[in-house]
Each structure stands twice: as structure tokens, then as C-alpha cells.
């Protein structure tokens, strides 16, 4: 996880509850409990976007306030570009899947025709054997 994503994840957790177990934060931001998580939390608290205290003994973050993240023009533009790129990849994947389905249908039809020919040959052979 990138630092900004971790920070945003922490803010979203603060929006959900006032008391957050450090273990939950560690899982959410993909950091091990201990020094790395502590450094992350200290940096987050220095940003002034989150007001909280860390209770290491209880393993809890007590949230007193937080600032909602701002979503400005740059973020909307980036989101739009990301969505456009995703839609393009989805369209390509859809085309590929449809091609695969057609190939499967064609090969299944060919296999069916071949098996019908074999069955027809077997029937002719059995009729001629009698």
C-alpha cells in the first residue's frame, strides 16, 4: 500500500468509529504491529488531519476528530482517467472472451460433426457386419 492510500484508509476508519484497535489499523494499512505502525500513526497525527491519541497499553487509537479528505479537480481528473482506462481494459477483455466463446462453439461444432461422422461410420460398419 502507498502512503497516501494508507492515510486515506486510516481516515476512513476514523470516520467509522472513535476507538480503533491498533491491530485493525495494522490489517487495514498492511503494516505489522509495532514500530512501523507507530511511525505511520505518528506521521498521520502530525498531518493535522487526524486528532487522536495512541494508547499502546490497550492497543487502541482514540480518535477525537478528523478532517474529511478533499476531492479537488486534480483528483476528479485522475479518477476520470482511471475509469476510462479500466473501461477500455474491460472492453478488450469482453472482446477476448467473446472470441474465446466463438472458438469454443466452433470447435464444439466441429467435434460434434466429427463424432457424428464416427457414429455414422460405426453404424454402417455394424450394419455391414450383420
TrEMBL record:
PROSITE patterns: PCI (PS50250). One of its GO terms (biological process) is cytoplasmic translational initiation. Pfam families: PCI (PF01399). Signal peptide: none annotated. It comes from the Eukaryota. GO terms for cellular component: eukaryotic translation initiation factor 3 complex. Residues 1-68 form the PCI domain. Residues 110-130 are annotated as: Disordered. SUPFAM superfamilies: Winged helix' DNA-binding domain. InterPro entries: COPS7/eIF3m (IPR045237), PCI_dom (IPR000717), WH_DNA-bd_sf (IPR036390). Belongs to the CSN7/EIF3M family. CSN7 subfamily. PANTHER family: COP9 SIGNALOSOME COMPLEX SUBUNIT 7/DENDRITIC CELL PROTEIN GA17, EUKARYOTIC TRANSLATION INITIATION FACTOR 3 SUBUNIT M. This is PCI domain-containing protein. It comes from Steinernema glaseri.
Amino acid at each position: 500500500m502507498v502512503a497516501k492510500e494508507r492515510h486515506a484508509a486510516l481516515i476512513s476508519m476514523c470516520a467509522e468509529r472513535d476507538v480503533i484497535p491498533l491491530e485493525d489499523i495494522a490489517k487495514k494499512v498492511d503494516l505489522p504491529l509495532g514500530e512501523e505502525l507507530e511511525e505511520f500513526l505518528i506521521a498521520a497525527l502530525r498531518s493535522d488531519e487526524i486528532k487522536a491519541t495512541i494508547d499502546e497499553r490497550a492497543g487502541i487509537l482514540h480518535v477525537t476528530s478528523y478532517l474529511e479528505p478533499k476531492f479537488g479537480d486534480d483528483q476528479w481528473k485522475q479518477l476520470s482517467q482511471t475509469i476510462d482506462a479500466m473501461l477500455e481494459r474491460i472492453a478488450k477483455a469482453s472482446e477476448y472472451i467473446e472470441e474465446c466463446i466463438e472458438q469454443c462453439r466452433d470447435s464444439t461444432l466441429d467435434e460434434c460433426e466429427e463424432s457424428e461422422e464416427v457414429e455414422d461410420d460405426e453404424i454402417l460398419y455394424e450394419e455391414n457386419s450383420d
